[in-house]
Every structure is written in C-alpha cells, then in structure tokens.
Amino acid sequence: MHVLITGAAGFIGQLLAKELLNDASYKVILTDLVDPPIPTGVKYPGNAKAVTADLVEGGLEALVDSTLDAVYAFHGVMSSGSEANFELGMRVNVDATRALLETLRKKCPGVRVIYSSSQAVYGQPLPKLVTDDVIPTPESSYGAEKFICEALINDYTRRGFITGFTLRFPTISVRPGKPTAAASSFLSGMIREPLNGQEALIPLEDRSFKSWLCSPRTLLHNLIVTLSLPADSLPLHIRQINIPGICVTIQEMMDALEKVGGKDKLALLKEQEDPVVKKIVHSWPTRFDNSQAIRLGFKRDESFEQAVRDFKDSLDNNDT
Predict the structure, then answer these.
(1) Domain 186-212+246-286+301-319 indexed as CATH 3.30.70.20
(2) Catalytic residue among 26, 72, 142, 156
(3) Which segments constitute the NAD-dependent epimerase/dehydratase domain (predicted)?
C-alpha cells in the first residue's frame, strides 16, 4: 500500500510513519515544509521517501500520482498560531488542503483521504454531552479553518473525487518533544517537562478545568483503523468522526504525575493564568458521545495515568 503523509515532520506524522515502516506492506512518502525525518529504528526505512514541499506552491506535483492508496493530511498551523496570524492559518490550514484535494481529484480519483480535524470546530454554547448531531460553531480561527476543510472533505467524497474520512482529534497527551503553538500544548507540557526535570507553566488557575484527552498509543490505533474502514460506513456527505477520548481535570492530571513521577515533580509546575489561552480552551467541549466511533472499531483510553506511564516508559527506554 502506498501512503502519503503531509505534515510528516510533526509528532503525529512521525508516530504514524514509524508504525507503517515496521510493516513491509507499506511504502510511505513523508512531506512537510521542512525536511521530514525518516524515523529511526524502523524495520523498513528503505520503504520511505522524504520530500520537502510547499503544498500551495506547486509542491504536490512531485508527490501525487495514480499509485497512491491513501493520504493522511496532518499539515497545519495549530490553534494559538492560527489566532495570532490569520493569513498564515488560512494559507496552511485551508489553501494547502484545497490544493491537496484538487491534485488528488485530478491525479488519483477515489483515493482514501484521512483528514485530521479537531474538537476546536465546536464552540459555546454546548450541551454537557456532545453528540454527532451537534452543529459545530467554532470560536477560533483554527476551528473555523478546520470546519471549512471538513466541508470540503464531505463534498469531495459525495462527488466521488476522494474517499474521505475526517477525524476530530481530542487533545493528544502526553506528546513528546517541544511545546507547540497549540493552546492545548500545556496539557502535555505539564507532564512532559516535569518528567524531564524541567519547569512547566499551566496557563489556568482552575484545577477543576476539564479536557478531552487521548494518548498517542490510542490515537495511533485509531489512525490505523481508519485505513481499513469500509467506504460506506458513513453517509457520503457526512464523513466526520469524533475520535474517542476521556475527560480529565487538571487536578487529575497532577495526581497522575505525582503517582507516576513522584511528589517532587509537582514543585516544577507553575500556575499563571493566560487570558488568551483561557478563552480558547474554555470554548471547547469536554464530553462526547463516542458511540459511533466505538461501533466503527475505534477505542478509548482506560485512564490518563496509563498515558503518563507510557510517556515515562519511553523516557526510561531512551536512557537504556
């Protein structure tokens, strides 16, 4: 199977690439604005090709041909970044996606496209439990840009141009690496940095604040499930799926950090409210009805503590 991953230099692109390149049946093209690395330690690195490309400036011609079986669209400017720079967010999140879809329509019609969206498409007021019937009303440029692209995925699928699936991701925690321009970045940083012996800032002072979270391990499972979903598992014009998550408060995250890393790690946390971040994250929903996703074969995490243990184990393994 030939798979293209856009935004492949990012965490999710690298996570998926590593999984696919441990299976001989996949050939993977990794592309990003910066040179996307081929993950180290995989069984079949020769099955990967890395291409630096700007999707808006004609870079797609070298990436797309009729042999493609699937595309994972992970490129994008995150929430705080989109809010700070409207033009950049529209260019990367909307224009690049439209250019990708147009190229796919012309060069490999019907190809499977798995588009990464976000719970940021929702805005207040919201019911306590968000079902698939709740209409998105985004309160951020990032959410609006994702919602625009969801509509494109729906229509291109309805017209038979692609076979699209839109995955509305929960916040992914615990992400390795450095902080991102996402408003939710602290939801990984408050675990990641202390476990690395570094200070972390929590931009909220309300420890009862709830987030809808998913671990990298569970996200990866759900990304792979989407690769084999029957095309007719959703209506042709309604292709979005709310990916399962779990509801966790900041206090519960701190408790998990203490249990896994030790009480001393809590001393590395600093709570200082940021009104810009607060406004963005408070517009997001905190509980979803994921019955459709579960029926389709997706799964959810058992606990946030396990996500913290997964991350600590990855650090311990890197030390050995």
Answers:
(1) no
(2) 142
(3) 3-201
